[in-house]
Specification:
Elements (H helix, E strand, L loop, with lengths): L15 E3 L2 E3 L6 E6 L2 E10 L3 H19 L3 H17 L1 H12 L3 H21 L6 E4 L5 E9 L2 E5 L7 H12 L3 E5 L5 H14 L6 E3 L4 H10 L5 E5 L2 H13 L3 E5 L4 E5 L5 H13 L9 E7 L3 H12 L20 H15 L3 E4 L3 E2 L9 E2 L2 E4 L6 H4 L6 E7 L1 H10 L3 E2 L1 E5 L3 H10 L4 E4 L15 E2 L17 E9 L8 H4 L3
Helix pairs in contact: 1-7, 2-4, 2-6, 3-4, 4-5, 9-10
Length: 505
């Protein structure tokens, strides 16, 4: 735990960033961000942004848009590269700040920052690519091509579980393609967002290009979504909230990129390397305390090896050490807040009525843990595929083991949820692996690895209620933030009427 928690009286006050200036909210109100490992430790006081503050940020982004869109894309890319380099220089400071505010263990926090660096560099390269197409015209002396152009002001609404990686996933493609942004971070991690924007200012993004408004979803988020001056929204969060954004945004025909829930499964076949599978399952289920959209919350196991797998999982999970993420001996950090603890506890009680509790199942509140939001790594066995704990997103350290008979039943169980983000299969049979790559209805499939660990140069996103079809990361990320324009140049000196003159009669 922190040696000396910072009191509310001693905690610093942070501001909004609008039009290149750090300003206080019109509301005069602030809210606290607390360390989830020790709620006595106040990270800071943050502005409770209002609809008026958000409107000012949107106005600043609008004003900055013409000059930014006309900045040559390679130059925009150079600024992204400078930002990525600054993140690299400050990686350890950023990671430690993240562990304090969000709770993930320091190694994972460093990985979170590194994802931000990686996507900054990847998208910086798009400043010199951002490919369109050239194609032959069907008429003589005529040129045909397509180009990408920015949409305008992008609304960026991000969650707390990856408080640096996900904002970078969204802002980097938006900015390199010539859009300006209004960034609303989760209220559990406003300090991480502030640190990012400080570095963006230092990297040289022009005033108004990047704007930060902290505050509630009702005040700040809804204003961004409702504004007619924000044509594109990129949101990561719950499916319930995402559906609400889709309904509102659809009324204005906004471009919407929605990355929503998951109920991800690891499949373990009878020929699998069980020790390797246990490594992958525990990392995927309890890394980030199960608070990843790609976290493994289900293990679908071929029945002949189910008991052996559960025994190995139990032995390892019971040895995991809970604690503050800056402690090198900590395996599992806290949940994000008290409400998350209560939700996990509620689902564990539901699980006790549906399956067999193997280990865990309790709030951890002994000693130093009493001041934080900790829950024991929890495993249920003999879970039915349609049980609530196997169907509903818990977003915590709860794993359901579902025994089935053979490959066809594995596929049925893996695909039998309303989500489709990530899946994996452990098998020594190459034919089975390729069938799973084809048959699993998820946007990401791993073979002989867990369900987490996506790399920034491949598309990230899911099927079904996991999202609305857009992808983040990879070169396809720029699709969300650009419009296609077809361009024709006729240098024949005469009127040519396309299909009429090309195919007369």
């Amino acid at each position: 735990m922190p040696v000396e928690p910072v009191s509310a009286a001693a905690a610093p006050v942070f501001k909004l960033f609008i039009g290149g200036e750090w300003v206080a909210s019109r509301s005069g109100r602030t809210f606290e961000s607390l360390n989830p490992a020790d709620r006595r430790d106040v990270v800071g006081h943050f502005q409770a942004g209002t609809a008026g503050d958000t409107a000012m940020a949107i106005g600043a982004a609008q004003a900055a848009f013409p000059a930014w869109r006309n900045t040559p894309a390679p130059r925009r890319g150079e600024i992204l590269y400078a930002f990525g380099a600054l993140m690299g220089q400050h990686k350890e400071r950023l990671a430690q700040a993240m562990t304090r505010e969000m709770g993930k263990v320091i190694a994972e926090a460093r990985g979170d920052v590194q994802e931000g660096i990686d996507i900054a560099y990847l998208m910086a390269g798009e400043g010199r690519r951002m490919f369109g197409d050239t194609t032959p015209s069907e008429l003589p002396d005529k040129w045909a091509m397509s180009i990408r152009q920015p949409l305008g002001v992008a609304g960026i609404i991000t969650p707390w579980n990856f408080p640096m990686a996900i904002p970078c996933w969204k802002m980097m493609p938006a900015l390199v393609t010539g859009n300006t942004v209004v960034f609303k971070p989760a209220s559990d991690t406003p300090h991480c967002a502030t640190l990012l924007v400080e570095l963006m200012q230092q990297a040289g993004f022009p005033a108004g290009t990047v704007n930060l408004v902290t505050g509630s979803g009702a005040e700040v988020g809804d204003t961004i979504v409702d504004s007619p001056d924000v044509p594109v929204i990129s949101f990561t969060g719950s499916s319930v909230t995402g559906k609400g954004i889709a309904a509102k945004g659809g009324q204005r025909l906004k471009r919407l990129s929605l990355e929503l829930g998951g109920k991800n499964a690891v499949a373990v076949m009878r020929d699998a390397d069980l020790d390797l599978a246990v490594d992958g399952i525990l990392w995927s289920a309890f890394g980030t305390t199960g608070q990843r959209c790609t976290a493994c919350s289900r293990v679908v196991v071929d029945r002949p090896v189910a008991d052996a797998l559960v025994a190995k999982l139990k032995a390892r999970a019971e040895k995991m050490r809970l604690g503050y993420g800056l402690d090198a001996t900590t395996d599992v950090g806290p949940l994000i807040n008290g409400a998350a603890v209560a939700k996990v506890a509620e689902y564990v009680e539901i699980g006790k009525g549906e399956a067999r509790l193997v280990c865990g199942g309790s709030i951890a509140a002994d000693g130093d843990l009493a001041n934080g939001s900790f829950f024991e790594p929890t495993i249920f066995s003999n879970v039915a595929p349609m049980a609530r704990i196997a169907q509903e997103e818990i977003f915590g350290p709860v794993l359901s083991v579902i025994p089935v008979d053979g490959y066809d039943e594995v596929v049925k169980a893996v695909n039998g949820t309303r989500y489709g983000l990530s899946s994996s299969i452990f098998t020594e049979n190459v034919n089975t692996a390729f069938r799973a790559m084809r048959d699993f209805e998820t946007g990401i499939v791993y073979v002989n690895a867990g369900t987490i660990g996506a790399e920034t140069h491949l598309p990230f996103g899911g099927w079904k209620e996991t999202g609305n079809g857009h992808r983040e990361a990879g070169h396809v990320a720029i699709d969300t933030f650009t419009e296609w324009k077809a361009v024709y140049i006729d240098f024949s000196g005469r009127l040519q009427r396309a299909q009429i003159d090309n195919q007369p009669g």
